[in-house]
Design goal:
354 residues, mainly beta, 5-stranded antiparallel beta sheet, 4 helices, 11% helix
């Protein structure tokens, strides 16, 4: 008899009256003949609390990635918590929920994902902490959404600190590929838009690639599928994660590339992606050009920043009183914003939105 692990998430009010605004979460793993058999031993994988949402009980399932990729965690009915995460973070793309679960999961066993536990058990506390961290450091600092065109590369620099682990998780909702017409195992990758992420150390030759697993779709050997994850270019999954356990202090370049489509697949197109990061500090925005209109009533400000970040544009004429002119999202590395000029002299600055 083959036993398959079954995960459940039990949600109930915390016993501490001081935590009345929170829910107590217990995630347990069961060993049963199938997903409805719970008579065997179970063990608690995680216990914690997170802000209360309108749900009573949910299940945590393991699902297979595209064509032999690692099994990621995903929620079948944790919609209220997902709504809370998206609403609190100010984002709306559905793949971002999956990315939160993966990015903040507790890595167990060998480093990286595996075919038994995926990216690890869901950690609700870490998930909420990541949302709050993005709010504290500025919206879009650690939770990013932006579009990448076919063949386009988006790169921005961050500062990493020795002893502080760095993690970057990229996900996207890939369009439907060509369907499989046979019942035999097909080893052909199915990505339509093949996005890739890597991290480069500025001024050095270090290049860090995402986790990859050997799906061994042809031989299906236990040895290959139980091997620890390695790193490299991933052309198979729409989830990629780069992890640097102990980076040397300095500047690093986060590079995202739309590598196009795969042979025999549909034509690729521009793709929205979601990127979560932990352990990094992006560089401050920099104004690179100011161009006044012929009438002098408007000015076009050009600045560079980490894409996906939100900023308040402030202006002053006396360096005493600053007023907010607009909220600006950095759609790319280089951005422009048109402002009205009402004073003979105007000075501008950008501040991350909090």
């Amino acid at each position: 008899m083959t036993f398959r692990p079954y995960f459940s998430v039990q949600v109930g009010r915390g016993e501490d009256p001081n935590l009345s605004a929170f829910l107590k979460v217990t995630i347990r793993q069961y060993s049963g003949a199938n997903n409805s058999t719970l008579q065997h031993d179970s063990k608690a994988l995680f216990e914690g609390t997170y802000p209360r949402v309108a749900c009573k009980s949910v299940r945590l399932h393991r699902v297979r990635g595209r064509r032999g990729g690692p099994k990621h965690v995903r929620f079948s009915s944790l919609t209220p918590f997902g709504d809370w995460v998206l609403g609190k973070s100010g984002h709306s793309r559905t793949e971002l929920c999956q990315e939160f679960w993966i990015h903040t999961a507790d890595d167990v066993g060998a480093p990286g994902p595996d075919y038994q536990t995926g990216y690890g058990p869901f950690n609700a506390v870490a998930c909420v902490a990541h949302v709050e961290r993005d709010q504290q450091h500025g919206r879009g600092t650690h939770i990013k959404e932006f579009q990448v065109g076919v063949g386009q590369t988006v790169a921005y620099e961050v500062t990493l600190t020795n002893g502080v682990p760095f993690r970057a998780t990229l996900t996207w909702s890939d369009p439907a590929g060509i369907g499989q017409t046979t019942t035999e195992a097909d080893t052909t990758p199915r990505l339509v838009n093949n996005l890739d992420i890597r991290v480069e150390r500025v001024g050095a030759t270090n290049v860090y690639y995402p986790w990859i697993l050997n799906p061994d779709l042809t031989n299906k050997t236990e040895a290959a599928r139980s091997a620890a994850a390695t790193t490299g270019v991933d052309n198979r999954n729409n989830v990629e994660q780069v992890f640097i356990a102990n980076p040397p202090s300095g500047r690093y370049r986060v590079v995202l590339t739309h590598s196009g489509g795969l042979p025999g697949g549909p034509s690729p197109s521009a793709q929205w992606g979601s990127l979560l990061t932990t352990g990094d500090t992006p560089l401050p925005p920099v104004f690179t050009a100011i161009e006044a209109s012929p009438s002098g009533t408007n000015a076009l400000l050009t600045f560079t920043a980490d894409p996906g970040a939100y900023f308040h544009l402030l202006s002053t004429s006396d360096f005493v009183t600053w007023q907010t002119n607009a909220t600006v999202k950095a759609e790319g590395v280089t951005n422009s914003v048109l402002v009205s000029v009402t004073q003979p002299y105007e000075f501008y600055r950008l501040r991350r939105q909090q």
